[in-house]
Amino acid sequence: MRRSTTTRAVGLIAACATVLLPAASARADTVTDWNAIATTAIVTTAGQSPHAATPSLAMVQGAVYDAVNAIDGGHRPYLGAPPSDPSDSKPAAAATAAFRVLAGLFPGQLPTLQPLYDASLAAIPDGPAEDGGIAAGEAAAAAMLTARANDGRGGPFVFVFGSEPGEWRPSPPGFGLDPAPWVANVRPFLVPSVDMLLSDPPNPLTSDAYADDFNEVKRLGSIASTTRTADQTEAAIFWQDHGLALWNRVVRALSASHDLGIADNARLFAMMNLAAADGAIGCWHSKYHWRFWRPVMAIREAANDGNPATEADPAWTPLFDPATPQFGPPLANPPFPDHPAGHGCISGAIVRTLKDFFGTDKIGFSAFSNRTRTSRSFDRLSDALNEIIDARVWGGIHFRTADVQGAVLGKKVAHWLAKHYFQPLG
């Protein structure tokens, strides 16, 4: 369960520091430093949405892992092991791999990234060890950029809009369109085929299960709800922070509290971000396969759904509406299909992967959100995932079944990863 009341952050400076710096910087190393740099480059500077950001960060962390692991030699590589020597500098390898992938993805950011890379190398003694680490990082980055060329990122996409009950179509207030629908067509990083991640379908409109989901989100997810508690309202808004950035902040803090070394960090951040990427890819593939409507359209048009247990409210508005006060861009109904829930897919993959890495669910941690400028604390990893499932209902943007199916899809990715990748050698 969540084990503490929320705590207010002190001003915008503290909020920005949480975005840019590891939560426990005293134990930071080159892997965690460049994870923070990469997150800023991808999320803040490039402005990529959570689902679009997952392939980018997966590429960075996968290359960092292969570079560091080639020197460490403790686990199976992801793509391959570049030539290296055990005496080569792991920090030089990590910094070089991250920098080169980021420069390849975002060449316009080179003026910002180059000084950060130069500072990383300046902290490493000159000599053969540094040179060897740089070479390993260069090779791992080149292999990643080559492997992910023409993988579907940024590719064309044809929207299919429905008009019948249950079919997705743009919804109020903005009637916007998904800024990155192409994620549905990206080649997975881990699983051999995205089709193996296809979620179970949404509940039939005439079913009791659909009516239960409908009436729950109608009651708890309305902007005018009288049954949603203040803490539930905060939780809903809290988890609307950029989920990938939030989870990487959490894991940087977990790394510090567990005193992880650079090789373990390289593996940890690769595992969670590769899992997150396939969680997003599988999720968006399922979303545009099922093309199920959002609660706002379902509730406003319930008179036509054929279910006697649902009642229409043509004026119903979710909590996630520009009128809801919070910090950041205005809240809105997400501009893509409901089923399954993206946050559940990505967070489900991350949480299950973290449980596998640490060997337990019972890990207490705190997370900070720039949406609420508060922190929330949890006794277990699964407590956070359960709150995310609830929070998307409380926000009025998902049926519960979509949230649950998202978490199931993410778990499938993590199970595949655990069975097929990152095994120890020897």
Structure report:
This protein has 426 residues and is an all-alpha fold. The chain has one domain (9-150, 163-420): Vanadium-containing Chloroperoxidase, domain 2, CATH 1.10.606. It contains 14 helices and 3 strands. A 3-stranded antiparallel sheet has the order 1-3-2. Strand 2 and strand 3 (374-378) form a beta hairpin. The longest helix has 29 residues, at 262-290. The radius of gyration is 22 Å and the shape is elongated.
Map the helices and strands.
Blueprint: E1 7-8, H1 11-20, H2 30-45, H3 50-72, H4 90-105, H5 110-122, H6 128-147, H7 208-220, H8 230-238, H9 243-257, H10 262-290, H11 295-300, H12 342-358, E2 365-369, E3 374-378, H13 381-394, H14 400-420
Helix pairs in contact: 2-3, 2-4, 2-9, 2-10, 3-4, 3-6, 3-10, 4-5, 4-6, 8-13, 9-10, 10-12, 10-14, 12-13, 12-14, 13-14
Query: How would you classify the helix and strand content by structural class?
Result: mainly alpha
- The strand line-up of the biggest sheet is 1-3-2
Q: How many angstroms does the end-to-end distance come to?
A: 39 Å
Percent in helix? 40-55%
**Oligomer classification:** single chain
CATH topology: Vanadium-containing Chloroperoxidase, domain 2
The CATH architecture designation is Orthogonal Bundle
| Strand composition percent | under 5%
So what's the overall shape? elongated
CATH class: Mainly Alpha
The strand count comes to: 3
Low-confidence stretches: 3-26
Order of helices and strands: EHHHHHHHHHHHHEEHH
Rg is: 22 Å
